[in-house]
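Reply to dn_fold:

You asked what the input looked like. This is it:
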Amino acid sequence: MMEIKNLPRHVAIIMDGNGRWARLRNLPRIEGHITGIESVREVVKTTKELNIPFLTLYAFSKENWNRPESEVRKLLELLELYLDKDYPLLMENNIRFKAIGEIEDFPENIQKKIEWVMEETDKNSSLTLTVALSYSGRSEIIRAVKEILKDAKVGKIEDIDEQSFKKYLYTKDLPDPDLLIRTSGEKRVSNFLLYQMAYTEIYVTDTLWPDFRKKEYLEALADYARRERRFGTVKEDSSG
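and this is what came back:
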């Protein structure tokens, strides 16, 4: 594996292009999602090999419920299959599984399976794999505000700052993403981690998610490693 210095600590990925990949091959859309799971496995494996401690995948947005009922049903079946089939791999590789989003939107059997996998892998420590399910960045922020208003321990309004606000987000125990990768060439964040990505570096590739494998992932990480992150500051001129 190529050596890359200055790796991100937290990578977030918008896995886009499954339907387009299938359409280009005259296949049902679900075939793109099935092949996309192989990309998930390869990216997770590579992330662990590189000792990157946090990986967050945008798997199912709140808006995805508006897709045709037959496609949603197939996606739910795939999610359940992934949880069943990959749970042993998570345990073997010491990977913690975390789900964020409005999990209560899912059928009860899937909710219970998500919660079970989260509990069983909670002590794992080599990588935290976070999967956004029925997730909306705007909804997360509104939910956090509601939780603050209900919390009697908050105190005065003026005591609320960025650090205290973060405690009410789904990602309260995660660092903000250093790098966002979006596949399929679309240049938007699609309501994903809106609060957390204030200073995240963004990498967009035309590669469709089912074709995004180790090679493409390493290219994205190498591009990130060449960047200079300033967080709103100006680089000091050391020339003179």
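The beta strands are 10-14, 54-61, 95-100, 127-135, 179-182, 201-204.
Hope that clears it up.
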